[in-house]
Every structure is written in C-alpha cells, then in structure tokens.
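Quiz preparation item.
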C-alpha cells in the first residue's frame, strides 16, 4: 500500500463522560470517511484501560493490540509497514484499518508521550487520515498527545446536564487549557438515546462548553444489539440507519481536510464499471 504524506490529518474524539458512546461515534465517523473517500485510513483505539472496538466488530481475541507494539514504540522502531501489518482490515470496508487498544491494563501508566507521538507520526505516514479515539480521561499520555497534535478535536457528549456541564466543564474548560487547548478549538457531537426525553439542545450545550457545533447522532436499540453481537461493521454497511450514521460529520471532516475520493464521480455509472472491468480483464 502506498503511504500517505506526513501531513495526513489527525482527527481525535474525546468524550466528556465514560461509556456514553464515544467509540461508537468515532468508529462510525472513520467508517463513513473511509467509505466516502475510498482512501486508506486507520482508526487508532487509544483507550489504555477500556478498549471496546474489537468486540463491537466481532474480533473477540485480536492477534495484535496496542500493548503488543510497546517494544517498537518504546524503541522508536515502528515503521509504516509494521503498523499496516499490525492493524486489522475491517471486513466490510478493507480500506479502513483498526489498531485495537491496550488490553493489558497494568501497562496503561507506563505508556509515554514519546511512544504516543511515535505511533501518531507513523500512522500519519502510512495512511491518508487518522482517527484517534481517546475515550474520556485526560490522565494518560495517549489522550494528551493525541489532542494536542490533532488537526480536528471532537468532543462527544449528550443532552444530560451532568455530562456537558459538569464533566464537559471539568475537562474541556478547566483541564484542556492546561495543555494549551481552549474550548473554541473543539467541535461538538451530541448523542441521543432512544429512551431519552427532553434534554438540552446543541446550541445550549455548545454555549455552556464554549465549543463549536458539528453534528448529532441518534442511537437506537438495534444499534446497541449490533454492538453486543459484534456486528457493528455490518450495521454501518447494510442497515438503512447505519448507512446514514455520522454521514454529516464525515462529510464535514472530508471537506475541511480536503480529502477527496480516489475514484472519479462517474464510477457510479454502470457503463463506467463495465469499462473498468474490461480494462482490468485486459491487463490480467
């Protein structure tokens, strides 16, 4: 696979609160961006204590996880080729690769800023764009490094006051500036649950946190079933609701970072697909 330039954009997702659906949103965004652009992309699970994405896409016992790369990260010897081999190609969308998160919890405190920076550097060299999912905690090198280096920062929250006012205020308004990041440098993604009634609106949430507006994502009972059964990728590919999940946010990110499709617009035309098939046959 041809590597991307060192300027490949990094888009980081952080939640205001644990277990609200940050990983669900981040992976859907990565899936939609990779699908729409046709580019080689990587989703980095930088959860050091609560990695979940491997279960959501049905890989209960991943062969390679973030902790398995610690020797290369510590020595600074990870290469684009090694990262590509370590990453998992999503079955439903092979141009989207996933590096599964740390599964050895007692190693979390030893993950250094230098290791995180090396991983992000290599990912940027190897892929057209990088999605980093850092969860909801600032007390680790992966979160701080990813957010300070990101080209776009997306804070995920809900309409619950305790989430965006209390948690969001603590992390985004109080802790984030300690690392040189102000609330205005974040875009907001609001999650809605099927059992949720009322709640605050995007405008009110952004005003409280001081962040910009990006998009909203409505979760459903059928989506939670897919996560539990490890078929999230299939849902994003085949389910009508899944096909629309994070489309608005993905389109905004692709436009913002000028990531264009590797395919011409006419690829959707049947006659053009036949022409490509004929050409491929002639070359074989």
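Solution:
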């Amino acid at each position: 696979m041809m590597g991307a330039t060192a300027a490949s954009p990094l888009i980081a997702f952080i939640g205001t609160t644990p277990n609200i659906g940050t990983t669900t949103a981040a992976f859907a965004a990565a899936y939609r961006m990779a699908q729409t652009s046709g580019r080689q992309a990587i989703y980095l699970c930088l959860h050091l204590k609560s990695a979940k994405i491997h279960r959501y896409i049905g890989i209960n016992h991943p062969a390679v996880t973030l902790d398995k790369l610690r020797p290369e990260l510590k020595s600074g010897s990870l290469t684009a080729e090694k990262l590509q081999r370590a990453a998992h190609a999503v079955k439903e969308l092979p141009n989207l690769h996933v590096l599964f998160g740390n599964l050895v919890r007692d190693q979390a405190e030893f993950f250094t800023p230098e290791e995180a920076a090396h991983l992000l550097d290599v990912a940027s060299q190897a892929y057209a764009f990088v999605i980093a999912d850092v969860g909801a905690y600032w007390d680790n090198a992966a979160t701080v490094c990813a957010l300070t280096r990101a080209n776009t920062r997306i804070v995920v929250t809900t309409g619950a006051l305790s989430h965006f006012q209390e948690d969001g205020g603590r992390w985004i308004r109080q802790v984030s500036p300690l690392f040189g990041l102000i609330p205005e440098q974040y875009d907001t993604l609001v999650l809605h649950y099927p059992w949720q009634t009322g709640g605050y609106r995007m405008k009110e949430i952004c005003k409280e946190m001081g962040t910009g507006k990006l998009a909203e994502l409505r979760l459903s009972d059928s989506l939670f079933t897919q996560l539990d059964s490890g078929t999230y990728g299939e849902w994003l590919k085949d389910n009508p609701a899944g096909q629309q999940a994070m489309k608005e946010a993905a389109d905004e990110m692709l436009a913002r970072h000028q990531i264009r499709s590797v395919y011409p617009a006419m690829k959707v035309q049947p006659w053009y697909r036949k022409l490509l098939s004929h050409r491929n046959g002639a070359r074989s």
